[in-house]
Amino acid sequence: MMETVSSRLDKESLTLFGKVLKEKRSEVVRTLVESGKKHKASELYANKKISIGLAAKLAGVSIGEFIDILRDHNVSLNIEKEEVSQALETARKVL
Question: In sequence order, which residues have a C-beta less than 8 Å from that of residue 92 and are 6 or more positions away?
Fold first, then answer.
């Protein structure tokens, strides 16, 4: 379910992003929100506040895609043995 949220944004920045990205204002906002979700999730993961699975879910991507995001943000994987075991167990249930 999608929820509509109101926010105040700097009109000048939105206009500039729109020109650079060649997108309408609503598309610019969506792009910035998506980018922000991925950035915040990678930051939380890098600071060991959340697992890679939760980080991927917060970012709205698969774990494989999130690993690529981490690489783009120069964040090292900090996967614990427990996480690998849990991932294997989940994979066995799904497959």
Answer: none
